[in-house]
Amino acid sequence: MIKSLKVSKSKYLGPLCVGIIAFPFLYEYTKEFYWTQRLKKLNMDEIISDRFTWLHHCMIVTIKQHKMVLESLDYSHLYTDYYKDKVYLPSEDTFFFVDILHNEFKNIFEKNPRLILELGSGSGYITTYLLKMFKSHENDTHSETNVSMPFCVCVDINKYAAESTNNMLKSNGVKSYCDSICMDMFSNINKVKFDMIIFNPPYVPGTAEDGNDVLDMAWNGGKDGSETIIRFIKTIDNYLDKEGCAYLLLEERNKVDEIVKNIRRTNHGIEAGSLIVINSTGSRT
Q1: Which residue windows are transmembrane per the record (predicted)?
Q2: Which terminus of the chain is more solvent-facing, meaning fewer CB atoms within 10 Å of its CB: N or C?
Q3: At 61, is the pLDDT very low, low, confident or very high (cuts 50, 70, 90)?
């Protein structure tokens, strides 16, 4: 009986000693694991909180900058006799396009485009707005992203519009970031890929009999208002970088659904980059 008891005690003595020796190490490991997980959660909560605060700040700053830029834009030269009835004045579609770019600006800013093309720049209002938005973000000390100013090329078939764009850029302090050229769409652009292309095309349905002066070219889009738009879609692959994006404004009479189907069927604009089609209701496709 005594011998059996001694054997029983010795049987449990070994594991007990191992447990006593291992306990401090196990305790330290458990404590370290607990606090590691706890700190990870606290850090994640802090990161999420900081990210939310930063995004909220960005939204407020961007809205303020949008309003400040719009209020500061000077296009008084358009009301002189020289440009009267020769250049398409900033109108509802112009302001609508600018609102779209404002809504998209966070995505545009993060893409950090180096080279931007605007086709049919008209008065120069849209590119001037875009450059001033970049300028205001460049000067924003709270911005987390270091983005340098892009360089823009503005194109218009109307020589008065090309001159107006240059004047508007100059009067708003961003001329050094842009060149304005008088030519028809991509006609004189060779072997250049743009990070971003914007186009507010002539989209109003019309005919050759509707007039052929410089101002008519700004709105007359031919049959269904889509003749110039189709030309653009067929050639954009050659000029849009594979990581780039393009913004094209349409209106319902352009048969938006058919144009979008054509883009998807032929991969025009999608194979090269991202073609964002905006119709007059503000929806994207």
Answers
A1: 12-30
A2: N
A3: very low
